[in-house]
Specification:
The chain is an all-alpha fold and about 210 residues long. It is built from 5 helices and no strands.
């Protein structure tokens, strides 16, 4: 029997040429789809690997920037804290000097003239306010503006008290009323300034 006859009989048993071709097409289709899927999976994996590498690099950069930021924050906090210590020290002396100009209970040396006593008190006040303003102004860029505004208000209040002490007549009826009013305003603003500084220190505190 010739091979052609054998093939015909096999094809006949298998269901004909169309069935075999259909089967081959199905097999080839599966192979092609599998290859396409493998290529897509490989591409997706490559993209995921690249994305992960980018994310890792970004995280590392952000971590470095955060650590740098925290370091700057600590340096700023330490500098600002030292400024507040110095400011408060100068403010305490200014408070003493300003409130001793016209104290409610005054202790005087009877051998000292009123003019000499006034000059001595004003000189002490002048030195105190000069040092206070120097520290306040030269450090202004490095601490809270709210604190500066309070310090400026204190400077004006104490300066007004010194001006009144220098020029007003102590025998005037309102002389001591004004002294008491100034005293209360100065002490109130000092307390307010203290609260602002405490709040500022609390807001910038960082933990290791």
């Amino acid at each position: 029997m010739e091979w052609s006859e054998v093939i015909k009989q096999v094809l006949a048993v298998a269901g004909g040429t169309s069935v075999v071709v259909s089967g081959l097409a199905a097999v080839l289709g599966k192979i092609w789809v599998g290859q396409v899927l493998n290529r897509e999976n490989a591409e997706h994996q490559r993209q995921l690997t690249n994305l992960q590498a980018q994310l890792d690099a970004t995280n590392e950069r952000l971590r470095a920037e955060l650590e740098k930021g925290l370091h700057i924050h600590k340096v700023q906090f330490e500098k600002e804290f030292k400024i507040y210590e110095e400011l408060w020290s100068k403010l305490v002396e200014l408070r003493k000097a300003s409130l001793s100009l016209r104290p409610a209970m005054d202790m005087v040396d009877t051998k000292e003239t009123e003019g000499k006593r006034k000059t001595k008190r004003l000189t002490r006040f002048g030195n105190a306010i000069a040092e206070f303003i120097d520290v306040t102004d030269k450090n202004r860029p490095f601490y809270s503006e709210d604190v500066y505004q309070s310090m400026e208000k204190l400077w004006k209040l104490t300066h007004s008290e010194a001006i009144e002490y220098k020029h007003l007549n102590p025998h005037d009826d309102k002389y001591w009323d004004k002294a008491q009013k100034n005293r209360e305003e100065i002490l109130t603003e000092i307390e307010q300034c203290c609260k602002i500084i405490r709040g500022r220190i609390g807001s910038v505190r960082v933990s290791d």
